[in-house]
Amino acid sequence: MTDIQILCIDADLLDIMLTWDQLAGYEKGAHKSDKQERNAGEWMYSTGVFNAASLKNGIFRALPPANVEELFRRMERVPVKAGQVIIRQGDEGDYYYLIESGAAEVSRSSQVGAAKAIVAKLDAGSAFGEEALVSGNKRNATVMMKTDGVLLRLGKQDFIELLKKPLVNEIGLDEAKRKIEKGAVLLDVRTPRNSASSNCRMH
Q: Residue 120's beta-bridge partner residues?
Protein backbone atom coordinates (compact mmCIF):
# COMPACT_ATOMS: atom_id res chain seq x y z
CA MET A 1 0.00 0.00 0.00
CA THR A 2 3.00 2.30 0.56
CA ASP A 3 6.67 2.45 -0.35
CA ILE A 4 8.78 0.30 1.95
CA GLN A 5 12.39 -0.64 2.58
CA ILE A 6 13.38 -4.30 2.79
CA LEU A 7 16.49 -5.43 4.62
CA CYS A 8 17.83 -8.81 3.45
CA ILE A 9 20.22 -10.66 5.77
CA ASP A 10 22.15 -13.75 4.75
CA ALA A 11 20.76 -16.62 6.83
CA ASP A 12 24.14 -18.25 7.47
CA LEU A 13 25.68 -14.92 8.46
CA LEU A 14 22.77 -14.16 10.77
CA ASP A 15 23.21 -17.50 12.51
CA ILE A 16 26.92 -16.87 13.02
CA MET A 17 26.38 -13.31 14.27
CA LEU A 18 23.70 -14.41 16.72
CA THR A 19 26.08 -17.00 18.14
CA TRP A 20 28.83 -14.41 18.55
CA ASP A 21 26.40 -11.90 20.03
CA GLN A 22 25.45 -14.41 22.71
CA LEU A 23 29.12 -14.88 23.57
CA ALA A 24 29.70 -11.12 23.58
CA GLY A 25 26.77 -10.66 25.96
CA TYR A 26 28.41 -12.50 28.81
CA GLU A 27 28.57 -10.56 32.03
CA LYS A 28 31.66 -8.40 32.24
CA GLY A 29 34.48 -10.13 34.05
CA ALA A 30 32.95 -13.57 33.70
CA HIS A 31 35.93 -14.91 31.79
CA LYS A 32 39.44 -13.65 32.41
CA SER A 33 42.92 -15.09 32.27
CA ASP A 34 46.41 -14.03 33.28
CA LYS A 35 47.16 -13.07 29.69
CA GLN A 36 44.45 -10.48 29.18
CA GLU A 37 42.43 -7.97 31.12
CA ARG A 38 39.29 -7.98 29.03
CA ASN A 39 36.63 -10.63 28.72
CA ALA A 40 35.28 -12.26 25.57
CA GLY A 41 32.49 -9.77 25.05
CA GLU A 42 34.85 -6.79 25.25
CA TRP A 43 37.17 -8.33 22.69
CA MET A 44 34.36 -8.71 20.18
CA TYR A 45 33.02 -5.21 20.56
CA SER A 46 36.36 -3.42 20.57
CA THR A 47 38.20 -4.98 17.63
CA GLY A 48 37.67 -4.77 13.89
CA VAL A 49 38.82 -8.35 13.45
CA PHE A 50 35.36 -9.75 13.96
CA ASN A 51 33.33 -7.85 11.38
CA ALA A 52 30.56 -9.42 9.33
CA ALA A 53 32.80 -10.26 6.38
CA SER A 54 35.36 -12.00 8.59
CA LEU A 55 32.72 -14.01 10.40
CA LYS A 56 31.12 -15.15 7.15
CA ASN A 57 34.23 -15.89 5.10
CA GLY A 58 37.12 -16.20 7.54
CA ILE A 59 38.54 -18.99 9.63
CA PHE A 60 35.97 -18.44 12.41
CA ARG A 61 33.01 -19.36 10.19
CA ALA A 62 33.23 -23.08 10.99
CA LEU A 63 34.61 -22.75 14.50
CA PRO A 64 32.47 -24.29 17.28
CA PRO A 65 31.11 -21.63 19.70
CA ALA A 66 32.84 -23.27 22.65
CA ASN A 67 36.18 -22.86 20.86
CA VAL A 68 35.43 -19.20 20.19
CA GLU A 69 34.99 -18.48 23.87
CA GLU A 70 38.17 -20.32 24.81
CA LEU A 71 40.02 -18.63 21.96
CA PHE A 72 39.39 -15.22 23.52
CA ARG A 73 40.53 -16.42 26.91
CA ARG A 74 43.89 -17.57 25.58
CA MET A 75 44.74 -14.74 23.18
CA GLU A 76 47.37 -12.16 24.05
CA ARG A 77 47.01 -8.53 23.05
CA VAL A 78 50.40 -7.25 21.86
CA PRO A 79 51.18 -3.60 20.97
CA VAL A 80 53.57 -3.35 17.98
CA LYS A 81 55.54 -0.57 16.27
CA ALA A 82 56.07 0.41 12.65
CA GLY A 83 59.06 -1.45 11.21
CA GLN A 84 58.79 -4.31 13.70
CA VAL A 85 59.21 -7.76 12.15
CA ILE A 86 56.52 -10.08 13.52
CA ILE A 87 57.49 -13.30 11.74
CA ARG A 88 60.57 -13.96 9.62
CA GLN A 89 60.87 -16.29 6.64
CA GLY A 90 62.69 -19.49 7.62
CA ASP A 91 61.84 -19.31 11.33
CA GLU A 92 59.84 -21.93 13.21
CA GLY A 93 56.12 -21.27 13.61
CA ASP A 94 55.21 -20.22 17.14
CA TYR A 95 52.12 -17.99 17.01
CA TYR A 96 48.98 -17.33 14.99
CA TYR A 97 48.21 -13.62 14.60
CA LEU A 98 45.19 -11.39 14.06
CA ILE A 99 45.60 -7.69 13.33
CA GLU A 100 43.35 -5.74 15.66
CA SER A 101 44.64 -2.37 14.42
CA GLY A 102 47.41 -1.19 12.12
CA ALA A 103 48.81 -2.39 8.80
CA ALA A 104 51.54 -4.83 7.77
CA GLU A 105 53.18 -6.13 4.61
CA VAL A 106 54.15 -9.66 3.63
CA SER A 107 57.41 -10.23 1.75
CA ARG A 108 59.09 -13.36 0.44
CA SER A 109 62.40 -14.26 -1.18
CA SER A 110 62.69 -17.15 -3.62
CA GLN A 111 66.09 -18.24 -2.28
CA VAL A 112 68.66 -17.37 0.37
CA GLY A 113 70.26 -14.02 -0.37
CA ALA A 114 67.71 -13.03 -3.00
CA ALA A 115 65.84 -9.75 -2.80
CA LYS A 116 62.48 -9.90 -1.08
CA ALA A 117 59.32 -9.16 -3.02
CA ILE A 118 56.19 -7.72 -1.42
CA VAL A 119 53.42 -10.27 -1.94
CA ALA A 120 50.57 -8.93 0.21
CA LYS A 121 49.41 -6.07 2.40
CA LEU A 122 47.44 -6.73 5.57
CA ASP A 123 45.19 -4.45 7.56
CA ALA A 124 42.83 -4.66 10.55
CA GLY A 125 40.90 -7.92 10.47
CA SER A 126 43.60 -9.84 8.59
CA ALA A 127 45.18 -12.99 10.00
CA PHE A 128 48.56 -14.56 9.34
CA GLY A 129 50.93 -17.22 10.59
CA GLU A 130 48.65 -20.23 10.33
CA GLU A 131 50.41 -21.99 7.43
CA ALA A 132 53.49 -22.97 9.40
CA LEU A 133 51.39 -24.11 12.36
CA VAL A 134 49.13 -26.29 10.20
CA SER A 135 51.87 -27.81 8.02
CA GLY A 136 54.68 -27.99 10.58
CA ASN A 137 57.03 -26.34 8.07
CA LYS A 138 59.11 -23.19 8.58
CA ARG A 139 57.71 -19.72 7.97
CA ASN A 140 57.42 -19.16 4.21
CA ALA A 141 57.29 -15.36 4.37
CA THR A 142 58.23 -12.34 6.48
CA VAL A 143 55.58 -10.05 7.99
CA MET A 144 56.59 -6.55 9.04
CA MET A 145 54.42 -3.82 10.52
CA LYS A 146 54.02 -0.73 8.34
CA THR A 147 52.34 1.25 11.11
CA ASP A 148 51.97 1.11 14.86
CA GLY A 149 49.17 -1.21 15.88
CA VAL A 150 47.90 -4.00 18.08
CA LEU A 151 48.02 -7.73 17.38
CA LEU A 152 46.11 -10.58 18.95
CA ARG A 153 48.24 -13.70 19.08
CA LEU A 154 47.58 -17.33 19.91
CA GLY A 155 50.32 -19.80 20.87
CA LYS A 156 51.07 -22.84 18.72
CA GLN A 157 49.57 -25.45 21.05
CA ASP A 158 46.44 -23.38 21.59
CA PHE A 159 46.12 -22.92 17.82
CA ILE A 160 46.38 -26.65 17.21
CA GLU A 161 43.80 -27.42 19.89
CA LEU A 162 41.26 -24.68 19.14
CA LEU A 163 41.65 -24.00 15.42
CA LYS A 164 43.52 -26.75 13.60
CA LYS A 165 41.71 -29.78 14.99
CA PRO A 166 38.15 -28.49 14.37
CA LEU A 167 38.91 -27.06 10.91
CA VAL A 168 41.42 -29.45 9.32
CA ASN A 169 40.13 -32.84 8.25
CA GLU A 170 42.92 -35.38 7.85
CA ILE A 171 42.57 -38.75 6.13
CA GLY A 172 44.95 -41.67 5.89
CA LEU A 173 46.77 -42.92 2.81
CA ASP A 174 44.44 -45.87 2.21
CA GLU A 175 41.33 -43.69 2.26
CA ALA A 176 43.06 -41.15 0.02
CA LYS A 177 43.82 -43.89 -2.52
CA ARG A 178 40.18 -44.98 -2.51
CA LYS A 179 39.05 -41.42 -3.16
CA ILE A 180 41.53 -41.03 -6.01
CA GLU A 181 40.25 -44.25 -7.58
CA LYS A 182 36.77 -42.71 -7.50
CA GLY A 183 37.91 -39.56 -9.28
CA ALA A 184 39.41 -37.36 -6.56
CA VAL A 185 42.51 -35.35 -7.49
CA LEU A 186 45.61 -35.20 -5.29
CA LEU A 187 47.08 -31.69 -5.16
CA ASP A 188 50.55 -31.22 -3.66
CA VAL A 189 50.70 -27.71 -2.16
CA ARG A 190 54.10 -28.06 -0.51
CA THR A 191 56.84 -25.63 -1.48
CA PRO A 192 59.75 -27.00 -3.57
CA ARG A 193 62.08 -26.59 -0.58
CA ASN A 194 60.19 -29.02 1.66
CA SER A 195 58.36 -31.25 -0.82
CA ALA A 196 61.16 -33.82 -0.88
CA SER A 197 61.42 -34.19 2.89
CA SER A 198 57.93 -33.49 4.25
CA ASN A 199 55.49 -36.19 5.17
CA CYS A 200 52.41 -35.90 2.98
CA ARG A 201 49.09 -35.59 4.78
CA MET A 202 45.76 -35.69 3.04
CA HIS A 203 43.49 -32.75 3.95
A: 106
Contact in structure between 59 and 125 (CB atoms under 8 Å)? no
pTM: 0.64
Contact 73, 31 (CB under 8 A): yes
Helices assigned H by DSSP within 25-172 = 40-46, 52-57, 65-74, 130-135, 156-159, 165-167
What fold is seen in the domain 11-168?
Answer: Jelly Rolls (2.60.120)
**What digits encode the pLDDT tens for the residues 45-74?**
555 555 555 655 566 666 766 677 677 778
d(Cα 87, Cα 122) in Å, to the nearest integer?
14
Q: Which residues, including other chains, have CB under 8 Å from residue 77's CB and lie 6 or more apart?
A: 36, 38, 100, 150, 151, 152
> Strand, helix or coil at 72?
helix
Question: What pLDDT score does 4 carry?
Answer: 95
Q: What is the C-alpha to C-alpha distance for residues 28 and 52, in angstroms, rounded to an integer?
A: 23
Domain ranges of the chain: 11-168, 169-203
Pairing of the two strands 76-80 and 149-155: antiparallel
